[in-house]
Amino acid sequence: MLKPKATSTPRHESGIYAHIIGWGMAVPDNIMTNDDISAIVETNDEWITTRTGIKERRIAGERESTTTLAHRAAQQALLVANVLPSGLDLIIVATSTPENAFPSTASLVQDRLGAVNAGAFDLSAACSGFVYALDMAAQAIRSGSITTALVIGAETMSRVLDWQDRSTCILFGDGAGAVVLQARTQKGGVLSSVLRSDGAGCDLLYIPTQNHSEAETRKLQKMVMIGSDVFKFANRVVDESIRQAVERAHLTLDDISLIVPHQANQRIIDSIAKKLKLDSSKFVSNLDRYGNTSAASIPIALCEAVQQGRVKADDYLVFVGFGGGLTWAACVVQWGAPAPIEPSRLTSSRRQAEYLLARIRARLQRWQRSISGLFRLLSLRRVRRWFARK
Ligand code: COA
Fold first, then answer.
1. What is the pLDDT of residues 54-73, one digit of tens each?
2. Which of 249, 287, 305, 383 lies 20 to 30 A from 186 at CA?
3. Which residue's alpha carbon is nearest to atom 8 within ligand 1?
């Protein structure tokens, strides 16, 4: 059922809509408070709180990684959606802290889940990555080329921070959030998106990799940021991108129930609210507990908003991200998901069986590779001996 107040939501030509039907999040247990950081760099709780709103963040433990966090969030989202891993057609992981340059973190998650029918790739658009990925998955669903997609934002920012740089290390944290998108004929889901980039600002926020010259790679794989310029950029573009996405969805700002912004800085969120003349209660904010988790921040904030009962069926939501690239992106989603259904025992057992099978399959394939490698080696030796005898 559509909300009567909206004039008309955009009709997607295919008559197929991409609805969010599952959601999940995962954060490390390890909490690092502002006081803990002040033992590492010269800063204090008062400075961090007043300039950013952040009080604490989660830091991945030794056995945690972008993949393990993404995998945990994905399992939760599949459970809520009541979807089996084998029912996924596509997995996109938005991340700036992938497990490897390649293979993609998405492929590692695909393997862990046992999503044997899914394509998988990572998407790099920094803190806007989740909104970009959601749009890509929604477009694939609306085109009719796939039915079900898993979209994940996952980061281990703590591993790319320069822990001597007090202007960056205070801001970020680790975590992952995921949603399952599925095709429906009922109007709603991801209604509109605005994706933008301005590469001229590439030097304001970046993580250099091996491809840089020697001089530039002194702080290889550590984040560099000109904080005040990034702050100004966010204040310049975010409200406008929200207005554009809302307009493209044929709605007005009054129709929007909740805005889920990227969790970078409370002062940025307050400034967007002021510019849009919206009450701050319409904005989700949890950065006091998690800091900036980059591509993971929007799906984590969404999950918490749903858990807190702040999202109702047919509500119009805006997700808005901004960050390195520079990139920024906004989308409007009409929440169509029913209340989480209690999964049947049969589906739950089948999902568990698919997870178990995924583990067994991965191990068997590795054994098979090492055994055939051994055989190749042995037969090579035999050939060499044969030649030696000749
Ligand atoms: N503790 C104490 N002092 C600090 C500090 C810290 N953690 N970090 C910086 N300072 C100092 C600076 O050295 C500077 O001192 P000086 O005046 O003696 O030179 C002073 O505080 C002001 O620095 P400035 O960088 O101008 O502060 P700011 O008000 O711009 O706040 C940020 C810094 C990083 C909090 C702010 O710029 C910001 O949030 N930017 C956006 C960053 C962001 O969101 N990035 C991710 C986008 S996805």
1. 999 999 999 999 999 999 99
2. 305
3. 167
pLDDT band at 234 (very low <50, low <70, confident <90, very high): very high
| Virtual torsion, Cα 212, 214, 215, 221, nearest 10 deg | 50
Q: Cβ(128) to ligand 1 under 6 A?
A: no
251 closest CA partner among 192, 181, 185:
192
Residue 262 annotated to the active site: yes
Q: Which of 128, 231, 238, 292 best tests ligand 1's pocket when mutated (most atoms within 8 Å of CB)?
A: 231
Cα angle, residue 360 at apex, residues 87 and 376 outer, rounded to 5°: 115
- % of residues, the chain, pLDDT over 90: 79
* Residue of 127, 169, 303, 331 marked catalytic: 127
Amino acid at residue number 167: S
Tell me the CA end-to-end span of the chain in Å, nearest whole number. 83
Quote the CA–CA distance of 353 and 308 in Å, as a whole number.
Answer: 31
> Which tokens hold the place of 259?
């805005």
Q: The whole model's pTM is what?
A: 0.91
Q: How many Å is the maximal CA-CA distance in the chain?
A: 89
Q: Contact, 328 vs 161, CB < 8 A? A: no
Confirm whether 127 is a catalytic residue. Answer: yes
pLDDT digits (tens, 9 = 90+) for 70-91: 999 999 999 999 999 999 999 9
Q: Is the CB of 265 under 6 A from ligand 1?
A: yes
